[in-house]
Amino acid sequence: MTALEPAPEFQTCVLAVPSMHCAGCMSKIERGLGTLEGVADARVNLSSRMVTVSHDATIDDRDLVEALAGIGFEAQPRKKAAEKPPSAVRPLLAPLAVAAFAAMNVMLLSVSVWSGAEGSTRELFHWITALIALPAIGFAGRPFFNSAWGAVRKGTTNMDVPISLGVIIASGLSLYEVIVGGEHAWFDGALMLLTFLLAGRVLDAMMRDKAASGVEALVSQAARGAQVVSDDGSTRYVESADLQPGMVMRIAAGERLAADGEIISGTSNFDQSLLTGESAPITLAVGKQALAGTLNLSAPVEVRVSHTGHDTTLAEIARLMEASTQNRSRYVRIADRAARLYAPAVHSLAALTVVGWLVAGASVYEALVIGVAVLIITCPCALGLAVPVAQVVASGALMRAGIMVKDGSALERMATIDRVLLDKTGTLTLGKPQPDADVVASLSEDEAAVAPALASHSRHPLSKAVATVLSGKTPAALTNVTERPGEGVFAEWNGQQVALRRPEGGGKTAVLLQMGGAAPRTIPFSDELRPDAAEALERLQRAGIECSLISGDTQSAVDDVALETGLAAQAEVRPADKQAMVAELREEGRQVLMVGDGLNDGPALAAANASMAPGSASDVGLQAADMVFVQDSLLAVPRAVIASRRTMSVVRQNFALAILYNMFAVPLAIAGLVTPLIAAIAMSGSSLVVVANSLRLARAAK
Amino acid sequence: MSIVLFLLPIALLLGLAGLAAFFWALRNGQFDDPEGAASRILIDDEDEEDER
Known about the structure:
The structure holds 2 protein chains of 2 kinds.
Chain A: E1 11-16, H1 23-34, E2 39-45, E3 50-55, H2 61-70, E4 76-77, H3 90-114, H4 119-140, H5 142-153, H6 160-179, H7 187-222, E5 225-229, E6 235-239, E7 248-251, E8 260-265, E9 268-271, H8 273-276, E10 282-284, E11 289-290, E12 295-296, E13 301-307, H9 313-329, H10 334-359, H11 364-378, H12 381-400, E14 403-405, H13 408-414, E15 419-422, H14 424-428, E16 429-435, H15 437-441, H16 445-455, H17 461-469, E17 479-484, E18 488-493, E19 496-501, E20 510-515, E21 521-529, H18 533-542, E22 546-550, H19 555-565, E23 568-570, H20 575-587, E24 592-595, H21 602-607, E25 610-614, H22 619-624, E26 627-629, H23 636-670, H24 676-695
Parallel strand pairs in A: 15-22, 15-24, 22-23, 24-25, 25-26
Antiparallel strand pairs in A: 1-3, 1-4, 2-3, 5-6, 5-7, 7-13, 8-11, 8-13, 9-10, 9-12, 14-26, 16-21, 17-18, 18-19, 19-20, 20-21
Helix pairs in contact in A: 3-4, 3-7, 4-6, 4-7, 5-6, 6-7, 6-11, 7-12, 7-24, 10-11, 11-23, 12-23, 12-24, 13-23, 16-17, 18-23, 23-24
Chain B: H1 2-27, H2 34-40
Transmembrane segments (chain A): 92-112, 124-141, 161-179, 185-203, 341-362, 368-394, 654-671, 677-698
Organism (chain A): Aurantiacibacter gilvus
Family (chain A): Belongs to the cation transport ATPase (P-type) (TC 3.A.3) family. Type IB subfamily.
């Protein structure tokens, strides 16, 4: 580490590594990259699953990705254009710090007043608290004031309206009391309220930031580029954003296309499941259109780019999704629905109190002070915490179970679900073809030794799957191994010609294992159901939720899965039809959860009441979904639904607790018996009860 | 009573110092990777010695 030569020019690059999750991964990555020639420093950010590497010019992004692959981590360089999304937490941290600091200091002085400071001491203390509190409230209250003002201007009300009113009126009254040398100042209560509520908001924002960065790590992993062939035959790597129509991309087997284009050389099988849901690969030859996002399965091809970015296939889907998203933004969060009832009730109660005391013969000043006390004591401290704290605790529990919740309203919508639509390829199934287990088990000793040995010489996805399945066997020693792209791997073994090759003709996905002169063995491949699919569906049914399958795949492929899972199924559904089906169910009054991964599911994901996508989903799927689950198991779906329901029942309990508190506190306030001391105790007490109740959700995702 | 005149500013100054320290930490990126910071404590540094 002691470099004495003049420091070379360093550049930094950021890599997304979605699969790291613990201290072990961190040290492996930092050490693995750190020892690399040309790397000065590597620093992991585990929260956002990113590594920042500073390196010199002898090394570039691709080398770093390869080095990471060497130590077992899949990585993707971050797109330069994609700036870090603005954090929701940061703008709230400073107000929280100021509010907490001011609340502590003011409380210190208030305690002296409560314990009997009088005369000039009390006046001095009151003046100091005013000096601390007023600027602090002005600064820390802005998030609430802004939001409340926005609501009032639109003629609606939200939870921030009663909060802002309470805080402002309490401050105003206190200032008046301080000036006239009165007995009570309420600054401590106002500041404590702000501190509690800001803490709740910070937690809420943290949850959203965490999910956003988790999803972003997955998304940037999917953003790719292509090897572009120049006129002189050399190739260079171009990121998908920089691809231009007319460029020629060389797509190796196992790579995804970064842009739409026409095949100009080579013939290969393509997996279009992410786009259409169809699981059987299609064969495309020279002159055919290949679409961005499809996976090249068998042979290298060259493709002339015709459309890039969001031009073609995506355009239609994007248009459909935009219409649906507006639909969802009309959802009103439960806290705001509660505020619509709460705010008018409280404000008219305060007004009635003032009128009542005036009628009873109190002076205008006395009546106003009591009315203000009612407003302060009903200021919805517990109510403001009731929703965010419960949702934060629940989404933390879901996060630990591998489910990322994008925002709190996702939990609210998920809780009402009574109908689930599941996509097939990649959602109900893993989307990765696996060799048929029965056939693999029936292979002879020799075959089981030769097959993985052959497979290990190819990076083709089917070969990789064969090698993985047979990894327990000792591979045979082969000689003269050659891989012929598009055909297979050929070799000699004990004087015999052996091969693992592509079967003639299209049809179902399979490989042929050739052993000398014997008839070749066919190893069929099928797309397996996700682990625990049966149990997951059963749990959903037990929760009173009807499930069915909706897929863009062919009838026969869908029927297989439908039979296996016992679900009603619809096959060969186009993206717009999926969306229409969701809309139709919603018309019938059903609350629909869409679970899907592909581009073709995007419009349906956006149209449904709630939506989930697996972590392997397309960018569009990840962005449209409310929740993303990163584990293979399908149990994530019932877990999310049940945890959401439990969250909402805790939220309702919290509301009940807050109302109960008001039933005790409000009569005291109306009777004119509330002092700042009582207000402080009541507010913090009720908040603590609500928080404690919400903490029970820590195990909600079990 | 005059002792209060000293104690009050001292208490406030100490609090303000804490607030300033927090803002410095916030600006200095100390809150950028809370998860990583929590995990880093588990990483052994001992095998770095053979590099020297």
